TrEMBL record:
Organism: Zobellella iuensis
Name by which UniProt lists this protein: Glutathione S-transferase family protein
Taxonomic classification: Bacteria, Pseudomonadati, Pseudomonadota, Gammaproteobacteria, Aeromonadales
Domain GST N-terminal: 1-81
Domain GST C-terminal, chain residue ranges per copy: 87-203
InterPro entries assigned: Glutathione-S-Trfase_C-like (IPR010987), Glutathione-S-Trfase_C_sf (IPR036282), Glutathione_S-Trfase (IPR040079), Glutathione_S-Trfase_N (IPR004045), GST_C (IPR004046), Gtt2-like_N (IPR034345), Thioredoxin-like_sf (IPR036249)
PROSITE patterns per the UniProt record, alphabetical: GST_CTER, GST_NTER
Length: 203
């Protein structure tokens, strides 16, 4: 198998942390999306969404979308971590908090960055007003994250999960938006706990 990625992107970072937690090592090919390498006809022919990360399977087929690739590896290499949950209720709670972090945190953060920085202005229309609105939505979400982490050690409860990985990636992305969480003690305590995980050392 081969993983096509750009290691510095949030989606690739989420997947790489997940793979590190699972102890999965895989060949990686860096794709320069800033230069538009993912926009070529050759790349679009193998990627259903034209984006990275993209997993090439041994049979020559492909999987895209970082969470779906995580799910594939979780099924392929089941372990005691159970990063998607270890019971029907746990899986539902992990999915719930993962989606909340994605919809209310990661996606608005990406929209804010793209529209305010204009990093992809050569291929999309940047709307600064939407960037500011998206940034405000991220800012409004952080107190909700703080409240949740005052209630539990991890987002979905007492066990670390992919929801925490997504939130960790979001927090790491905030400086690009001129934002920080140093005044939020519960997030800081959670960050210290997550940073202490051995898998995070190389991510």
């Amino acid at each position: 198998m081969k993983l096509y990625e750009l290691a510095t992107t949030p989606s690739a970072r989420r997947l790489n942390i997940f793979l590190a937690e699972k102890g999965v090592d895989i060949a990686r090919i860096q794709v320069d999306v800033r230069a538009g390498a993912n926009l070529t006809e050759e790349f679009k022919a193998i990627s259903a969404n034209g984006r990275i990360p993209l997993l090439e399977l041994d049979d020559g087929s492909y999987l895209c979308e970082s969470v779906d690739i995580c799910r594939y590896f979780d099924e392929l290499y089941p372990d005691e971590l159970a990063l998607f949950g270890d019971s029907p209720l746990a899986r539902a709670r992990v999915e719930m908090w993962h989606r909340i972090v994605e919809l209310d945190g990661l996606i608005p953060a990406f929209q804010a960055f793209r529209n305010l920085s204009g990093v992809y202005r050569d291929r999309e229309t940047c709307v600064p007003a939407w960037g500011e609105e998206s940034r405000a939505r991220v800012q409004a979400f952080l107190p909700r994250l703080e409240r949740r982490l005052a209630e539990a050690d991890y987002l979905a409860g007492e066990r670390y999960s992919i929801a925490d990985i997504a939130a960790y990636v979001l927090i790491g992305f905030l400086p690009r938006l001129g934002m920080e969480v140093t005044s939020m003690p519960h997030i800081q305590r959670w960050l210290a706990r997550v940073n202490g995980r051995p898998a995070l050392a190389g991510c």
